Amino acid sequence: MHRQKKGNSTGIINNKLMKIRAFFDYIVEFEVVKNSPAKKDKLLKKGVKI
User: Which UniProt keywords are given for this protein, alphabetically ordered (predicted)?
Assistant: First the structure.
């Protein structure tokens, strides 16, 4: 939500979140961390304005 207030669209925010998830999936696969903290975050719905 903080990023939306700064003017980023939901598409940009979701794209960044998907990249973060991919990174954490990668380090979970190589057992650097046990669980991905990014899994609990949900993507934003398109068209939602705050």
Answer: DNA-binding
CA–CA separation, 38 vs 29, rounded Å? 14
Rg of the Cα atoms in the chain? 13
Q: What is the pLDDT of residues 11-30, one digit of tens each?
A: 888 999 999 999 999 999 99
- Is the entire prediction scored with pTM above 0.85? no
37: CB partners within 8 A, 6+ apart: 24
Residue 34's contacts (CB-CB under 8 Å, 6 or more residues apart) are: 28
The better pLDDT of the pair 45, 15 is held by 15
